[in-house]
From TrEMBL:
<dbReference type="InterPro" id="IPR000515">
    <property type="entry name" value="MetI-like"/>
</dbReference>
<keyword id="KW-1133">Transmembrane helix</keyword>
<protein>
    <submittedName>
        <fullName>Amino acid ABC transporter permease</fullName>
    </submittedName>
</protein>
<keyword id="KW-0812">Transmembrane</keyword>
<keyword id="KW-0813">Transport</keyword>
<dbReference type="Pfam" id="PF00528">
    <property type="entry name" value="BPD_transp_1"/>
</dbReference>
<dbReference type="GO" id="GO:0006865">
    <property type="term" value="P:amino acid transport"/>
</dbReference>
<dbReference type="GO" id="GO:0043190">
    <property type="term" value="C:ATP-binding cassette (ABC) transporter complex"/>
</dbReference>
<keyword id="KW-0029">Amino-acid transport</keyword>
<feature type="transmembrane region" description="Helical">
    <location>
        <begin position="53"/>
        <end position="78"/>
    </location>
</feature>
<dbReference type="InterPro" id="IPR010065">
    <property type="entry name" value="AA_ABC_transptr_permease_3TM"/>
</dbReference>
<keyword id="KW-0472">Membrane</keyword>
<feature type="transmembrane region" description="Helical">
    <location>
        <begin position="26"/>
        <end position="46"/>
    </location>
</feature>
<keyword id="KW-1003">Cell membrane</keyword>
<dbReference type="InterPro" id="IPR043429">
    <property type="entry name" value="ArtM/GltK/GlnP/TcyL/YhdX-like"/>
</dbReference>
<comment type="similarity">
    <text>Belongs to the binding-protein-dependent transport system permease family.</text>
</comment>
<dbReference type="InterPro" id="IPR035906">
    <property type="entry name" value="MetI-like_sf"/>
</dbReference>
Length: 221
């Protein structure tokens, strides 16, 4: 492509390929959410457990997952697990790595939400003769999880941005497609500006929705 090609014309040429990459990125983040949120809830319960072994295991998983950059976790999964006989595809590796990283951060958000429920709610459940498990599932958890929604949505936006790391192991997501287009056309600046706009087209509305949800929840309180 010539340098004299107009910016709009070059963007129109790049956009279909970038949208193919965006579809792959959205598929990855959807899988990360489906795996990561239930895992985050389990990790939050493990960290809050009064049993020392369960509490210790939960703490180790969460702190290691939060302590390492997502890119390091991705490399450990993709390049490290085959040494132990577990060979994952590049897409499975990025989903597994990002789901672990995502679940560790979300578990702390969920734990904070559950702990924010006044103890009087627990005492009220006990006064009504409810079993601790029923009190937690029907009284504590619904109230605590409701306050975590804005935080979880914000963390999901960050996880979506982390899907760009998948290009390092040749997953054909948005960043990988942008890099390939740049190599073919040598119009790196134009390609990456457009890729940034595509990312922003997803993250900015998501941020606005998160802010709106947060205000609605605060009004309810």
């Amino acid at each position: 492509m010539s340098d004299n090609t107009s910016l709009l014309a070059s963007w129109l040429q790049f956009l279909p390929t970038l949208l193919v990459g965006l579809r792959q990125s959205l598929w990855i983040i959807a899988a990360v959410i489906v795996i990561g949120l239930p895992l985050a809830f389990c990790l939050a319960l493990m960290v809050m457990s009064k049993r020392r072994l369960i509490n210790a295991v939960g703490l180790v998983i969460v702190e290691v997952g939060r302590g390492m950059p997502a890119l390091v976790i991705l490399y450990l999964v993709y390049y490290g697990l085959p040494r132990f006989g577990l060979n994952l595809t590049n897409i499975a590796s990025v989903i597994g790595a990002l789901a672990w990283n995502y679940s560790c951060y979300c578990s702390e958000i969920i734990r904070a939400g559950i702990l924010s429920v006044p103890k009087g709610q627990l005492e009220a459940g006990q006064a009504l003769g409810l079993k601790p498990r029923i009190t937690f599932l029907r009284v504590i958890a619904p109230q605590g999880l409701r306050s975590t929604i804005p935080g979880l949505m914000g963390q999901t936006i960050l996880a979506f941005q982390d899907t760009s790391l998948a290009y390092t192991i040749a997953v054909p997501e948005l960043m990988k497609q942008a890099y390939s287009l740049g190599g073919e056309s040598f119009q790196y600046l134009r390609v990456f500006v457009l890729a940034g706009l595509v990312y922003a087209a997803v993250t900015l509305p998501s941020t606005w929705i998160t802010t709106w949800v947060e205000r609605r929840i605060n009004k309810a309180y």
